[in-house]
Structures are given as structure tokens and as C-alpha cells.
Amino acid sequence: MLVLHGFWSPDRGLRLWAEDSERTVTSPSQAVRSARPHPFAASEDTLAGLGTGTLGEAVLQLPSLARSPLDSPELVRATPRSAARSRPALLPWRVATLDVPPADALAWLLAVADGVDGVDVRGGNDSDVRHGASVGYWADVASWAGELVDRRRVLPAVATDAGRPVALWRPALQGQDVVAFGALVAAMPPVCRAEPVHSDAHELVVTAVQTFTDVGMRRSMGPGLDLVPPRRGRRPRQTPTAEAWLAALTAPNGHFEADPTEVDRLGLELASWAEVATGRMGPARATFRLSEIEPVAGDDGTAVAAAEEDSSDGTAVSPASTRWRLEFLLQSTTDPSLIVPAAQAWADDGSLRRWLDRPQEMLLGELGRASRVYPALSAGLRQARPESVELDADGTYRFLSEAAPALDEAGFGLLLPAWWDRRSRLGLKATASTRRDAAVTGGSFGRDALVDFQWRLAVGDESLTDDEIAALSEAKAPLVRLRGKWVAVDAEQLRRGLEFLRREPAPVRTVAEVLALAAAHPADVDTPLPVTGVAADGWLGDLLGGSVGGGSGDSVTRVEPPATFTATLRPYQARGLAWLSFLSTLGLGSCLADDMGLGKTVQLLALEATQRAADPQAGPSLLLCPMSLVGNWEREAARFAPALRVYAHHGRERLRGAELSQRLATTDLMLTTYATATRDIDDLAGHDWHRVVLDEAQAIKNSLSRTARAARRLRAGHRVALTGTPVENRLSELWSIMDFVNPGMLGTSQSFRTRYAIPVERHGATEPAERLRTITRPYILRRLKSDPTIIDDLPEKLELKEYCRLTVEQASLYQTIVDDMMARIEGSEGIERRGNVLAAMAKLKQVCNHPAQVLHDRSAIGSRSGKVIRLEELLEEILAEGDRVLCFTQYTEFAEMLVPHLSARFDTDVAYLHGGTPKKRRDELVTQFQGDGGAPIFLLSLKAGGTGLNLTAANHVIHLDRWWNPAVENQATDRAYRIGQQRRVQVRKFVCTGTLEEKIDQMIEEKLALANLVVGDGERWLTELSTDQLRSLFALSEEAVGE
């Protein structure tokens, strides 16, 4: 196993090194003052296998013992190292490095930022490669730099490199970007500063962001882009400096030839220009507030200088007399809620000086800079004490559409009318009408079916009437009131829209064209105005609205499975079958994302059985799933669809080449694992599959992994993804699954990141989130068990906390660990501190389970653990009632202690399943437990037994220790609480009173936002708590110890 680490060198860029768990732990040398070779750092040959780059060497200061560096928290060894007996210190070590070229470094780090774990520098994925905290940090820096490029927060510049002029792109930071930059500097892990010659965090982040910005900007412009305007007449003998500089901005390395004096002059001009664009960071900035001037009553009582009201028939009227005021303000850069009107600044009596020195000078300077961006401000600056400027309708529109974006880019504040931010834009709305002669059945429609189609001018999602269009044309004003709302109407856009409607009536379109239009991003549609919506009626409207399969759409008829299908589908499952069949007939992929336990397996088997009964000549389907589920699919197919010819393709004896082709000729459904499919992809990709199905499709959530790339290579007429969690942490996971289901529908990975992931995940943008929901809604069907309209016959689930007290022995060990680990935590920082916190967490959780687990001494269980004592009490009651129970633990060592103890204590068999259990034995354990003669107690490791099993014979679930991830615990509980369960399920979670278990449980219960964080990050969030918070968290309360 390798753990990759990275540090930044201002002159060499990203430098990678790695720890190798297979190498010797200690150094043969005891010389602590000079740099020794790092004993378990990866070799040059190993690093060279990770990708392109230059091999080198570096000396790093690392937390160490006398003869060995400490392991990073991410390093896992087959045999754990013995506990340290001395206090760590920072010592120098020599490591081999791989210096990655800037373009490759940016691409790789962006992949890491998208959540792709184990990806090597070439873009491959290796499960034996993990990332250290430093790699994650530089990925965040690269991602932020990429976001600056996406938002075009960059400026061209000129510098010198080894005496040669070079054109480059530099970040233009203003406002919140400055705050974000400071946060990045402050968050740098100490391991990123391990190279003594480059240990200044500010310098490292500055140079890294500058490099990534320059590389990212050149990459975004693409090859062949020429910024130099075409020249007329004869070319001069020597290219002018400005032209050479412009050409170099898109060149690979940016170097160009020019006279040094001219380069200096160009540099001064660019610096002056950049100051206008970014300004100088100070305590305040100028902010502009636009508001409509209230009507003033004339002598006769009529309103003057007001917007005319809409006419009675609702048509638009030009507000020619409406006036607007643009007010000047000063806004604090550290506290944006602190805003001072210009009038108050001019009348300052000294009260503002508590946070702003010389406010009048600051205001005038900022207004002068703003006037260079927005010259119309000059009129207001002619006043002795400028406070505001008045604008007419035309000037207001120009300010909103042109000046406001420029002022925002230059770092000024803007307070605009709410209707402008939410404004309904003039655009085109498409409507499609299907035939209403009958409900849709499998053979009466398809992607090539024709529908009536019409474009209409619209404002937002509302189509305009002919009278409204005529009124807008006559108004000839950029701002009008329409249906009681302000609407911005560009005359040229209106003209182009009307011309488009006359030129392209397009009375009919195919279903495929309508679906493509509905899924397209506005930037990708070739129309003169943006497409504001796509509406349809009938079955096509139900599909676009996401009601097919959801119960509210009735235009798609029920699909009846054949007599050979023995299961009775529930109503929602029958709708799911109709939805799957409906999209299959259209040639569209689907993602069935029903809640765990709602029967995704039986719905897919019903689809296979139904379509093969209708078309016996259909080719074989391929289903990929985790190894643990192959047996379940075989059993369920034999039970519910015995007519299906099923072949399980895995193991060393699996068929290949011609033998596989021969077998497929008599196969309806081939089952294989993700690992096998990845290894055999060249063979499997050569077949044309009737359908490819991915069960537990989150297996391809990392789009750059070998598994995801292999899945996308498979050819099929229909693709289906089955998953209960289409998005676990990042929107990139949704992109990966949907790109398999319907390739290209959400664009490229990069465009998706720019259009959706960054705006939604980082900025909480609602518009792209809603657009994404609209696009994906037709192809994702998700129903929840908690919805009574979906399922109303699941028995009650009772969730209880079992509070256990520590024994005296446990309490003594607990306190000893707290004292030892707090001393270590207080004396460490950065990555070493986080490792110590996680180690303390693990030890304290283990001692809460049983002293023997943390001591690793294989001693007797006895009555030494409050949890074991309570477990025995519960099991006695459960077994006396004739019930069965699932017991989950995340620690296999604890489970292995409990199996013989509980078996002897209750004189009964105890089943045990863990990650190392072979498939055959796993299937036997499940079958036996579900049968009449199975063991009444089933111990399972949380990761191995928490998903993919049907264990409804149990009506009790006990979580012996906590994972602190509600999603993981709920998945485990759903092994018993699912369709087929006939009895009330009792779920118990063990919590040791007065220990960190109770305190963390309370934190999660009290803070839902924190619970959401835990879902994504496990226990790592705890490592960021302060030392005082950790001391309080770990402290043993008086009520913790039992009598």
C-alpha cells in the first residue's frame, strides 16, 4: 500500500512522495542531525510508475522517533507498529520525489478534488494508493484556482523569467475571494511545509494559485485561439510588443521576444489597468444601491415620475417617465452588514473612525475608481459631496445589464432590486403535443415518433400572448411592466426572437429531439434567445414531469408480467416496471433509486421476464454487482423468474472468448462482479448486450476509476442503474452514474463541474440545482419506505438507545488512555495531531466494548464489560421468545471474541459473517439463518454485512458500537427492516453513559447539520475540535461507572 503526499516548491511546482507499507520501518543509521534516507519512503521506480514527471530528491522535516519517521494516519500496515516509547521530534529525512508538470498536476488534483480516491497521476485508479492530507489540501487549492478561472477572476500580466519576457494569467482577488485565500493559507497542514527551504504558507499558496490559474486559463481557451486582431496591410519587420504578448497568452509556455524597454512600459500599463479592476484592499469599498423613485403627487393629486400601471387587458406599457436613484454607500469589507450612506460619510462627526479612518477620502477614491469602470457616474461626481445619481429607464437598464457586472468584477458592492436577481428573461418556450387517441403501450411509440411542436416567445415560463408581443414591440423600452412585474426586454433580442419564429415554424419534431432539447444546457442550444422551458402533454408530459412510475401519471399503461413470473408486484413496483419498460422502449437509460428494501431486484427481474416473453430472440443482458450479491441475484431469479436462463460469470473457471460467446447464445441474464467485469472488459465490450444493469451503481461514482471506465465501454440497447444512494457526497457521483445511463446527457465532466457542481456545492445556487433536477427527473425514479402512499404494510420499527455503564476495569483503562492521548495531542499539531485524535477515538471506543479488545491479550470475557453484560441480558429475553437477532460491530476482533463466548453462554450456534468470508460460505450463512433451523444469533461486521443481504428472519437488530454515520447504521438495520418482514423490528444502539459515545451521540442528535456532515466525513470532523473541546469530549463522567 502507498500513501501519496505532496508539497509545493515555488520553482519546481507540485512534488510528490509516498510512504510504502511494505518497506522496512526503521533506519539503520542513528545519526539524527543529518538527513538520512527515509526507511519506508517509496523508491524512484515506484514513483515513476505513477505517471509522468521528473524524478528528484528532497529533504523533509517529519515527526519522528530516533530511528524512524512516524506513520501518517492514512498508512495501514498488515502488522501494526509497536507503541512509541519516546516523545516524537521533527527530524530531517531524504525522500525520492516525482515532480509533476503543472498541466498534469492541475488535471490530477482536480480529479482528486472531485472525490476520486486512489487515482494516480496518469488518471488511472489503484486501490493500493491512498492520499495523505497534503494531497487533499493541494487538491482544494487547485479546485479553488479552477473556480477562479471558471468565473474569469483572472487578469493578463507580464513578467520576466530568466531574463525573458513571459505573458501569464494572474488571479484577480476581491471581496470574498480574499477571505477564501486567507482561509486556504490558514488551513495548510504542517506536512505541506515540511521542506525547510520553502516553509512560508502564504508564499506557497500564492505561487501555487498563480501557477494553477495560468495553466487553467490556457487550457480553458483551447488550442488555436488567437487574441491578436487581424492586421490590415503589410506586416512590420518586428512584431509589436503588445501583439507578441497577446499571442503568448495562449501559447504553451507564454514566452515571447520583445524590447525590454517596451516590456517595462507594457507592465506599467497593465498594472494601472489591474488596479482599476481589483483596487487595493482596504477596510471598506464603495457599494451602489439602485431603487425606484417613489411617485410624487402633483398639485392635482396625480402621480408624477412614476411607472405607468399595466393596462386593464394586461399588455405591456412603456414606463417612459419612471426614474431610478443610484445611491453611493461605503461597505465594510470585514463585516458586509455594516453599510454607511454617502450622506453619513460626508457628515461624519468622528464616529465612523472606530472602523474606518478618513471615510470621505475613502469614498472619493472608490468613486473615482468606479467612474473608470462606469463613466456615467461622472455626472454624480460633479457635486461637492456626491451622494447619488438619477437614471432614466434606458440608463437604468444599461446600468443593470452592463455596468453592474463590470463593477462586480472590479470588486465593488451592489444592492440591486430583488426582481432583477429573480428576473424573468425573455426567451423561447417549446411545447409538444402527443396524440390523445390512447394510453401509450409498448409498441405504439418510440424515440422516432412524431409530435406536434411549437415555439412561443415567453417571459420566464409564461408564454406571451399576441397582444403582449405587439405591446412589447411598440414600447421600444428596455424596462417594462408586464403582468404586474418589471421585465427587461432587449429590443434586438425581441427582433431576433420574432424573426426566429417566422423562419422556423417546425410544426413537428421527434420525441428524441424534444427530450434532447429538455436536457440541454441553455448554452448548448442554437437559438437566438435562451430556452426557458419545454412543456408537453400526454405521456411525454408525464415523462418530462417525472410522474411516470410515481403514481400521478396515468398515460402509460400497466405492464403485465408473464405467467412464468411468480412474484406478485406491489402497486408501486408495478408502476416501476411500467416506467422501466417505458424508457426501455424509448431507448433511454434509467436509474431506479428506490429506498433500500423496496424491491429493486424484483422490478428488474420482472422487466427481464416481461420483455423476453414478448421477444424470445432478444440477446443476453449483463448485470454487474458486488461479489456479495451474486448469490442473491441467482436465488431471486430462480425464485421469481425461473424461466430466465441465468449464468454467473466469475471465478477462475469462468468462460472466455469463444466459449463465453457460445454460452451467451443460451443465456438470458449473465451475472458478474464489478472486479471481474473490469478484468474482462476487453472480452465483454466486444458483445452487444440487450441490456446492461449496474446493481449498487454507486460502485461507479468515481468517474475516473477503472470500474467506471469499464462500465461505460459496454455496448447495450438499454442501460439501467440500481442504487439507493444516487448521490452520497458530491454531484460528480450523479454525473458518473447518469453518464453511464444516458451518455452525454449532462455534458462532459468538466462542463458539469462548471455549470452545476461548483455553483450548487460551493455557493448553494438554486437555479442550476433546479435545472439539474428538471433534466434528470425523467430518468430517475426514487420512492421511500417512509412514504405511506408507497408502502403501508411494513411493520413498526422501534428504535431504542441502550445506555450501558463501564465496569471499574473499563473506567480505569479509559482514564489512562485519556491521560496518555491528551498529552500526545497537546504536544502535536497538524497531521500528527489529527492522527493522535483518531487513535484516541479508536482506543476509547474499543475499551467501551471490552478491556480485552484494547489490550489485545485474548483474556476471558467474563463480566468485565457493561456492554457484554447488557447484551447477555437482552439475548436471554430474545431467545426465550424464540426470536432472532442481528448484532453489528465494526470490529472483527470484538466479534471473534463474542462468537465462542455467546455460543457457550446460551448453548446455541452463533453465525458470524465478516469481510473475509468466502462467497459460498456467505450464501450458506444467509440461507441457514433465513431457514427454520438457522442460528438465532447472527454476528456481522458492519462493512461486510451492512449492505446487500436479506435477513428478515431477524426481528431484533443490535448495534454494539457506533459508526457515527446514520446512513451506514440505517443500511445495516435495513437487512431486517425490509419487504418480507412480518414482525415489529426492535433496533437497539449501545451507548456507554458518561463517555465520548454518549457525548458524540448527543451532538449528532442535537445538530442535524452536523449529522449531515458526518454522513460524508465519518469521524474526521472530530479531529478539528480544539484541545479543550477534545478534553471535554473524552472526559469520563461520574455516572459512567456501574456498581
Automatic annotation (TrEMBL):
<dbReference type="Pfam" id="PF12419">
    <property type="entry name" value="DUF3670"/>
</dbReference>
<protein>
    <submittedName>
        <fullName>SNF2-related protein</fullName>
    </submittedName>
</protein>
<feature type="domain" description="Helicase C-terminal">
    <location>
        <begin position="870"/>
        <end position="1026"/>
    </location>
</feature>
<dbReference type="Pfam" id="PF00271">
    <property type="entry name" value="Helicase_C"/>
</dbReference>
<dbReference type="InterPro" id="IPR001650">
    <property type="entry name" value="Helicase_C-like"/>
</dbReference>
<dbReference type="GO" id="GO:0016787">
    <property type="term" value="F:hydrolase activity"/>
</dbReference>
<keyword id="KW-0378">Hydrolase</keyword>
<dbReference type="InterPro" id="IPR022138">
    <property type="entry name" value="DUF3670"/>
</dbReference>
<dbReference type="InterPro" id="IPR049730">
    <property type="entry name" value="SNF2/RAD54-like_C"/>
</dbReference>
<dbReference type="InterPro" id="IPR038718">
    <property type="entry name" value="SNF2-like_sf"/>
</dbReference>
<dbReference type="InterPro" id="IPR027417">
    <property type="entry name" value="P-loop_NTPase"/>
</dbReference>
<dbReference type="InterPro" id="IPR014001">
    <property type="entry name" value="Helicase_ATP-bd"/>
</dbReference>
<feature type="domain" description="Helicase ATP-binding">
    <location>
        <begin position="581"/>
        <end position="744"/>
    </location>
</feature>
<dbReference type="InterPro" id="IPR000330">
    <property type="entry name" value="SNF2_N"/>
</dbReference>
<dbReference type="GO" id="GO:0005524">
    <property type="term" value="F:ATP binding"/>
</dbReference>
<dbReference type="Pfam" id="PF00176">
    <property type="entry name" value="SNF2-rel_dom"/>
</dbReference>
